[in-house]
Structures are given as structure tokens and as C-alpha cells.
């Protein structure tokens, strides 16, 4: 999942995540659920939100740059996910 963290701006469908992990989607889902307590897509959302929060707090980057860096199409989507994601800063 290091590649995932380094490339949050990329489109990551479940099949691509599974291929990157070297397994099939069901095994990835099961493994993530056991190890992280959430699905692969929920973990991707967590990583994106964590990175966006970090960039907002620690940099002077414009919101549009943060949106692109974290893989969202626009700031409205980022805001909707951000404010609809209680506890998104909990540790994985």
C-alpha cells in the first residue's frame, strides 16, 4: 500500500488495488478488513482525508492543489467527503 499512499492523486478502482497488492479483490477486501478494520476503498478514503488534513494544516498550498494531490475531482467533493467523514483522523 506504499504505492497507494504515494499516488493518492491516481484513480484507484478495487481491481487496480488488488493487482497492486498481488491478490484478487476478495482477498484484498478480507485482508484489509482483518488488518485495518475497513474495506480497501474506505482505507483509500482514509488516506486521502488524512493527507488533505495534513496539507491544509501544515502548508500554504491552495485548495485546488490539495484537491488534485489527494485525488478528488473538485473542492466540493473534497468538502463533502471531509465533512461527512467523522473520525477520519483516527489511526489506521
Can you walk through the features of this model?
With 92 residues, the chain is mainly alpha-helical. It has a single domain, classed as Homeodomain-like (Arc Repressor Mutant, subunit A, Orthogonal Bundle). The protein is 65% helix and 0% strand. It contains 6 helices and no strands. Helix 2 packs across helix 3. The chain is elongated, with a radius of gyration of 13 Å. The C terminus is likely disordered.
In short:
With 92 residues, this protein is mainly alpha-helical.
Overall 3D shape: elongated
**CATH architecture identity:** Orthogonal Bundle
CATH class identity:
Mainly Alpha
Low-confidence stretches: 88-92
Kindly give the count of domains: 1
Could you describe the largest sheet, including whether it forms a barrel?
Answer: none
Amino acid at each position: 500500500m506504499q504505492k497507494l499512499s504515494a499516488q493518492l492523486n491516481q484513480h484507484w478502482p478495487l481491481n487496480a488495488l488488488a493487482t497492486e497488492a498481488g491478490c484478487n479483490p476478495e482477498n484484498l477486501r478480507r485482508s484489509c478488513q482483518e488488518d485495518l478494520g475497513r474495506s480497501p476503498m474506505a482505507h483509500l478514503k482514509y488516506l486521502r482525508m488524512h493527507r488533505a488534513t495534513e496539507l491544509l494544516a501544515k502548508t500554504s498550498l491552495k485548495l485546488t492543489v490539495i484537491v488534485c494531490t489527494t485525488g478528488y475531482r473538485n473542492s466540493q467533493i473534497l468538502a463533502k467527503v471531509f465533512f461527512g467523514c467523522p473520525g477520519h483522523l483516527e489511526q489506521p
